[in-house]
Specification:
Helices cover 30% and strands 28% of the residues. By secondary structure, the protein is α+β, with helices and mostly antiparallel strands. Among the domains are: 3-97, Rossmann fold; 124-198, 2-Layer Sandwich (Dna Ligase, domain 1); 329-419, Aldehyde oxidase/xanthine dehydrogenase, a/b hammerhead (Aldehyde Oxidoreductase, domain 3, Alpha-Beta Complex), CATH 3.90.1170.50. The strands form 6 sheets. The protein has a 4-stranded parallel β-sheet, sandwiched between helices. Strand 14 (300-301) and strand 15 (305-306) form a beta hairpin. It is globular, with a radius of gyration of 21 Å. The model has no long low-confidence stretch (mean pLDDT 92).
Length: 419
């Protein structure tokens, strides 16, 4: 059986899902991460410590490992390893997205330029250096606008500004976020720049797909029923199947397909975020990975197969029994952080789990840890999962369960924290 090299940093939510999928498929796995594991010496083929911030050195380590442990595919669990996975697969002669296409998709400015040049619908935008004077640049920005870093994910550092004064404040806040964020996994092209792009009002949706010789195959389309209007863009609920009309769904797929083609992505998972207005779908971003966090748990195919099983099977050339999603609706809520501070207690979980339709509830922040809301923060308090016969019932179950939860957060001096 071909070996999978799975790249993931120790901060990922995605480890268990991919390792479970590999186990179900009978695929041997080598985990490549930035820190050595305690039992690594007992299973040297199962773990490879890699300097994610130094791709040349990491590639040397991977090549040396592959000489004694042949690798059949290289995958990244999430954003941190995407570019290294593409570079490594290329060096090993394995099917892969080109490193250039992955780099374009990881750089929000490069994505905007690519989509604009391909004649696709994309907001007006301006790229700004961290060294710029935001007061002087404010006249160039389209208002209302969204100010964002080029490479951070999970809506971190994404702020709406409706006028010049708000833009200056947002720029300074994003500059502060980048100053306190590790850039070891960023590139020089993304770590020193900020994007200000036109804000387009409308609902958001997400498309989960897989690329291969047949092009883009849509696996699921999610509605995001909560309005994302700013000033920050904290995502909460994803529900599938989408309740949009068939013509709208076709337009979402068409716009995503055009964006993927323009960026040059050709294989593997695709997660697309789009916004819908009177003009149609606008691509916000395209990621060459699966949906983030634990949200992929909403997807089951052919009755029980997980999304990660499809991704691994496609990467290794194994058969996929079915791409058909289960008939019931599924939904997930990423539990938002209401305020910054120290999490002292999380109550109401038993009542929330007892809500009809709730499948699981996970609080992922340990009691005693500091929590930081958006735009400075980069995680959620946890996840609630629901399944029901209809999207409406699945969504309602999440909202009822969330209302049962109580979080005791002690205010401390954190950015965006306090009452």
């Amino acid at each position: 059986m071909k070996r999978l090299l799975l790249l993931m940093t120790t901060r990922t939510y995605r480890a268990a899902a991919f390792l479970d999928a590999a186990s179900r498929l009978g695929v041997p796995v080598t985990v490549g991460s930035e820190r050595p594991q305690i039992l690594q010496d007992r299973n040297p083929a199962g773990h490879l410590t890699l300097p994610f911030g130094d791709r040349d050195r990491a590639l040397t380590e991977i090549r040396a490992f592959a000489r004694t442990h042949p690798i059949g595919a290289v995958l990244a669990a999430d954003d941190d390893g995407l570019l290294l996975a593409a570079v490594a697969a290329s060096a090993l002669g394995l099917p892969h997205n080109s490193p250039e296409s992955v780099a374009r998709s990881r750089d929000k400015h490069a994505t905007r330029v690519t989509l604009r040049d391909a004649g696709l619908r994309t907001p007006r935008f301006v790229r700004l250096s961290l060294d710029d004077d935001p007061v002087a640049r404010a006249r160039e920005v389209p208002y209302p606008c969204v100010v964002k870093p080029l490479s951070l994910s999970a809506s971190r550092g994404v702020i709406r500004a409706d006028d010049a004064a708000a833009f200056v404040a947002a720029f300074e806040r994003v500059r502060g976020i980048l100053a306190t964020t590790s850039t070891a996994l960023a590139t020089p092209e993304t770590s020193r720049w900020i994007l200000a792009e036109e804000y387009r009002d409308g609902e958001e949706v997400a498309l989960e797909g897989i690329l291969g010789e047949e092009g883009l195959r849509t696996l699921a389309i999610y509605d995001k029923p909560d309005p994302l209007t700013g000033p920050f863009f904290e995502e909460s609920i994803y529900v599938t199947p989408s309740r949009k009309q068939p013509a709208v769904l076709r337009a979402i797929e068409e716009q995503t397909r055009g964006a993927v083609t323009a960026l040059g992505l050709t294989r593997g998972p695709v997660h697309a975020e789009l916004r819908l207005d009177a003009d149609g779908p606008w691509v916000l971003e395209i990621a060459a990975r699966t949906i983030g966090g634990l949200c992929a748990r909403t997807l089951r195919f052919g009755g029980c197969a997980a999304l990660e099983e499809i991704v691994l099977a496609r990467a290794l050339g194994l058969p996929v029994s079915s791409y058909a999603r289960e008939p019931d609706a599924a939904a997930v809520m990423m539990i938002p952080i209401p305020r910054g501070g120290i999490l002292r207690a999380a109550g109401g979980a038993a009542r929330a789990r007892a809500v009809a339709g709730v499948e699981d509830l996970m609080i992922t922040v340990p009691v005693g840890e500091k929590v930081v809301p958006l735009p400075e923060g980069d995680r959620y308090l946890g996840f609630i999962f629901a399944r029901a016969r209809t999207p409406e019932r699945a969504e309602a179950a999440l909202r009822e369960a969330h209302a049962c939860l109580e979080f005791d957060i002690d205010p401390v001096d954190t950015p965006g924290g306090g009452g």
